[in-house]
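Hi V.,

You were right to ask for the full record rather than a summary. Here it is.
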Amino acid sequence: MYVFQCEDSIDGIFTGVYDAWASRYGHKNIRLSADQSGDITLFDEYIMTKADFEKSRKVSRTLLQRLGVEFYETICRCAMADGTLRKLPMDKANAVYQTIVMALALPEGAKVLEYLGEPCIACIFELCRQTSNEGHHLIEFLRFQELKNKILFARIHPKNDVLPILAPHFTNRLPLEHFIIYDAVHQTAAVHKASKSYLIVDASSIDLSLTEEYSSDEEEFRRLWCRFFDTIAIESRINLKLQIQNIPKRFWADTVEL
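Predicted structure:
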């Protein structure tokens, strides 16, 4: 078995798909892996692939042209998921590869996503749902704070790479605002300039001290909100379990009142 090891990202997985397909070793003899644990198996040959934007773009173009937007978005959301959160029948990168191979080989193409009896399709479905659920949760929960330079800044700690879901939503909702959504887990940021589109950039070197310098209006609204939150609370009716259900503890660090 030839195991193509790729980076755990959309570009990394799509590059692995490109290299595996171009190798011509035969799809049954190939497995794709985004596992970063370093575990290897005996008698398998491991081939390292490095994320290549041009190769990733070619795979994206093929998926869009031959299988459609819905199929492409489903595959991308699967690639954005944290594949270690659930017990899955296979590595998510291999699920992506096997699904693409199956879709391009069959006349019904994108309809293969309905074949939930196939392990790779079941894996795709579960990971896509995982990413989408967290993305929709954060769309409702995300808090922007106005900095001194009038840029709206939000910090999130997602388990999955959900910036490609959040960025277009808030670009449509706040087209005339400068804003940054910082993913502290994946060290990336969605940057939007007023009246322009957004970019997702590497934010590993961001100066977080600047993000704690709030405007005078922001300071006042934070103070008013905390007072309102404390005032309406009825001590005898505090339901911590319900509070955790509505806003899980892992999001509390990104809130003002908790």
